[in-house]
Amino acid sequence: SQLHVKLEYERVINQERAALKYMDEKWVFNDADAIRLELYYGCKPDAIIPMGAPVPEINTDYVAKVTESVAVKQMLFVCSSYYVNIDGFNWFYKNIFPYLKQNCQINVVGDGALKLRGKVDEKKIRLTGHVDSMVPYYENADIVIAPVFDGGGMKVKTIEAYSLGKCIISTTESLNGYWEGTPEELRGNLIYCCNTVSEWIDACNVLLKKEIHRFNPEVYEIFKASFSEEALLTGFKKRLKV
Predict the structure, then answer these.
(1) DSSP class of residue 226?
(2) 3-state SS track over 174-211
(3) What are the backbone angles phi and psi of residue 134, rounded to the nearest 5°?
(4) Bridge partners, 67 (sequence order)
(5) DSSP state letter for 171
(6) What is the CB neighbour count within 10 angstroms for residue 111?
(7) Gyration radius of the chain's alpha carbons
(8) Residues 45, 168, 103, CA angle at the centre, nearest 5°?
(9) For the residues of 50-108, what is the DSSP string, one character each?
(10) What is the pLDDT of residues 25-64, one digit of tens each?
């Protein structure tokens, strides 16, 4: 029940608030989490250290792939069964999809895709459940979308997209921690931060009309410099002075 969930959240928050008294270091992933830490726990973090992930092996054939401006673009949404993904895609399907001006293929992959069965037009939206590896789906995507409006921390789907050099259209929520490290020249070019219906429609239609490089080295280099495991380790060492 909702009451049970509310009580459970309150219990967890109280336990974490007590644990904070005995911590030597308090770290968060991004500015949004720093604000939440102060709001809910009354303290500021000692450091903001973004998430890190392994540097993937990049297939040379994949690097060379270009989708022409007139071709049908492949749009990917990685959808776990967590409610924020289901709600986010339902919002996209209702508010954005009908206004896409160029023909495109929407691919929804992950456990949550199965929860969309019967709710979307499966002639236009390809739903794929659990897969052993997301890499082929990312490599086949021209554009990665992340219409997610709730949650916290840093989204794994976003770091995966950065690590494979993708064009990305995302909300602020899914870009928290990443947007800060994205240079101005890539904002609104390869990486789009959109929160309103009109912003999403405009960004999607702009990219759908463009020639798309499925691997963008500028995005990949940002990942390596700021969001790789090596960058994460550097942040740890700097904070711990080792």
Answers:
(1) I
(2) HHCCCHHHCCHHHECCCEEECCCHHHHHHHHHHHHHCC
(3) -85, -10
(4) 212
(5) -
(6) 14
(7) 19
(8) 155
(9) ---BPPPPPPHHHHT-EE-TTSPEEEEEE--SSHHHHHHHHHHHHHTGGG--S-EEEEE
(10) 999 999 999 999 999 888 999 999 999 999 999 999 999 9
For the record, the structure tokens of 128 come out as: 């794929």
| Helix 197-209 × helix 83-95 angle, to 10° | 70
Residue with tokens 């102060």: 38
Rounded Cα–Cα distance for residues 237 and 193 (Å) = 31
Number of other residues whose CB lies within 10 A of the CB of residue 109: 22
pLDDT at 19: 86
Label the pairing between strands 104-109 and 73-78: parallel
> Which candidate, 21, 93, 65, places its Cα nearest to that of 212?
65
Q: Which amino acid is at 159?
A: I
Are the C-beta atoms of residues 52 and 225 closer than 8 Å to each other? no
Return the SS3 of 28: strand
pTM of model > 0.85? yes
CB 157 within 8 A of CB 175: no
